[in-house]
Amino acid sequence: MSKCDEYVLAIIAEGRRRGISPRGIVIGIATPLVETNLVMYANERDPESLKFPYERLSYDKNSSGLYQQRPEWWGTAADRMSPSRSAGMFFEALAQLPYNDPNTPPGAFAQQVQRSAFPDRYDERMPEAQALYDRLAGSVPDEKEKPVSKPAFTEIDRMTGGGRSPRSRPPINFLLHTEEGNASADSLARYCNGDNGVSYHYTLRDGILAAVVDTDYASWSVLDANAFTLNLCFAGSRSSWSREQWLTRERDIEIAAYVAVQDCQKYGIPPAVIAPPYREAPGISDHRYVTDCLGIGDHTDVGPGFPWDVFTNYVKKYAGSGGIEDQLSWGEIIQNRAGNDVSREDMIKFMDERLERVERLVMAMVDQVAGSGVADSIYKGEPAKFDGFSQGGNRSAYDLLAAAAQKVGVPNTRDMKAGK
Question: What is the spatial distance between Cα 257 and Cα 250, in angstroms, rounded to a whole number?
Fold first, then answer.
């Protein structure tokens, strides 16, 4: 194992020990990639650092270690020259920031910790850091959770080289399917040999998992979505099944969850379950996601009776606590004020529509009082002259809106003097 890999493993382990998310750990890997290319530096201006194992000498002021930390701000020489302890100091500072904010580039948080003269370099190395994390994270046990054993199943090789095509892009979704028949895992796998125009990466029934198509290739499962999907079919299953019927196959549901998580980790796919109502995103779903969300084809498996909650719990089990993002609750059913069942996504859409209506109403009120086009000018941040303001004089925005509301007949409003 290379020194670089050893350092990355130490960083991952320390991040997990501190409860840092995968995104935060990747930031913690990208930072020493930028600072030192994951080389351990000592510094003659920090004489204590020379007492610890190092690979090269740094001449950047008195910076030392993988993170080029300075004694004025960062612990002892023993801390700075230790891969895990130096990472721990970095993560302690990172944890004070909203580093999981998806709307902010991850490199911005590294910059807030490091205060580099070259702030853009962290995002440039983020893909490399992600690749290192994806390759090595599986080798680091999560100290916060007990090891989880894989479910018991028998795997058989039915990969004949047929029923597949080269991928034109990396996989981003793992999808579940029903057979709509009564085959065994083995007989369905043999049917998917390339002669019948259909195939899956896996077929599964009664604890037997057949590997049909190498996951580095596309199977023939979901039309135009084949290029970016991984596909598992429950042999001997039907989309018309009730929840009770599906739960008689709970063992297979658990195995499917385990396989999905393994492939998500292999290809860097978020192990996030995309259950109905769907949202377009990388993650784990079923064939109906391709139909309803992506608009490809007309299949509806695995059907409305599929126990998504049971499947999701097994995905959580094998992905670990950090494997499921809050996105999983996006489709959760909640009740609105009228007592009607709605999804969170529907509630957000409803709120957006109401806010747009309020915005249009306010702009119309301003235009009626101050003159046509004034509201649009204000919205764009342009100077606006209130030629049509019937009250005259210099008035505050509050006065303007109050007068506008009164003019268009909004009840219980009046033109109020500023400060009253």
Answer: 11
154-331 CATH: 3.40.80.10
The full set of domain ranges for the chain reads: 3-139, 154-331, 347-407
Per-residue pLDDT tens for 43-75? 999 998 998 889 999 888 899 999 999 998 888
pLDDT of 373: 73
Cβ(26)–Cβ(129) below 8 Å: yes
Burial string for 193-226 (b: 16+ CB within 10 Å, else e) reads eeeeeebbbbbbbeebbbbbbebebbbbbbeebb
In the chain, what is the straight-line distance between the N-terminal and C-terminal CA atoms, in Å?
A: 74
And the tokens for 310? Answer: 């049971």
DSSP string, 278-338: P--SSEEEEHHHHHHTT------TT-TTS-HHHHHHHHHHHH-TTSS-GGGGTT-EEE-TT
Residue-level pLDDT at 420: 33
Q: Looking at residues 300-328, what average pLDDT do you find?
A: 76
* Residue 357 pLDDT: 76
pLDDT (0 to 100) of residue 60: 83
Residue 36 sits at the vertex; the CA angle it makes with 35 and 40, to the nearest 5 degrees, is: 130
Q: Which residues contact 132 (CB under 8 A, 6 or more apart)?
A: 5, 8, 29
β-pairing, 229-234 vs 202-205, is parallel
Strand-pairing partners, residue 164, are 219
CB 199 within 8 A of CB 188: no
Contact 25, 32 (CB under 8 A): no
